[in-house]
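Incident log entry.

Two folding requests arrived from the same account within the same minute. Monitoring flagged them as a possible duplicate submission, but the sequences differ. Recording both here for audit purposes.

Request one:
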Amino acid sequence: MNFVALPFNNKYIFLHSKKHILFNWFNVLWSVFLWLNVALFVYYLLSIFKIGGTLTPINYLYIFAIISLFVVVKLVLQFINSFIFNAETAIVHIVFNKVSYQNYSGLVLFVANIFLTYITPYSELVAYLALVLFIVVLCIGWVNLLRIHRNFITVNFFYFILYLCALEISPFVIIGSYLKY
């Protein structure tokens, strides 16, 4: 029940981050749920804005595979980074916080996908609204992450900037430059 109120309070984060339950079934299933919904939402965005020509269900599977691979590689790199800089405990808490908010944002995309499938197919308004809500939930997560881990970040500011550049910003720049061609 605490997960449902995640953007409004951090009770879920405080209760579960101490237990190191990043890789329990609840988080794994919610992560797969997120990947499925992000893939479907991207598939709908490509259909609505007519990007990439005619789409088939195979395209959905490709999108899902790319998103899944991207997230898993990113998580592995984050844990390698934490091992190299000897900050395993702090990074596990930070990743748990991020994954929790990302999984919650999957609920937003799930509702949007229901609207785009059954109620208002090919609605640009629903697509834009869902995208904005998705970004708002992720921004709330980042603000809470920065607030909760403020002391760790100030002590390790150089490593935090390195982490942001290497593992948060650069993958999207690489993907954006790849998609441009």
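Request two (distinct sequence, not a duplicate):
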Amino acid sequence: MTRGLAGEHGVALALYDRLRAAERAAGGPADAVVVAGAGSSRPGGDDGTLTAVRQLRRLLPVPVTVAYCSASAPAPAEEVARLHAAGFRRVAVSAHLLAPGRFTRALAEVPGTWAVSEPLADHARVAGLVAARYTTADGDAEAAGPPGPGATRSTRTTMSGRPGARAA
């Protein structure tokens, strides 16, 4: 196992690319952006989305806020409505989600959105990050030596990212 992609600048660049594609399809740039993450009740579980928001703010000349599809607040519809009440008319939703599913379908139905971006899993930057993590984990596993009895290649590197360590 490797560490997650949370906080990687490449994720923010993928968000930016997907947002710009959605804006082009809608007919022009948004005047505010809501980054919609999955949401988590786990302490620190929303950190990746919050980092992506901070990174996207540095790339865009418009306000960038956060919303969550579950477990955390505000909800995307609430945040889009709040931005409209503040005077913004072209509010885009940037999906900080990996794959299509219930959350992406819900984002497409949020009233008042100017554009909604596609999820990130098949974006070249995200694929590159995953490939780099895999290569690093595979190299770490090779450096650890042969697995012990009953272990398979996939169990050499654990959730901690350290070969042979036990996951908590």
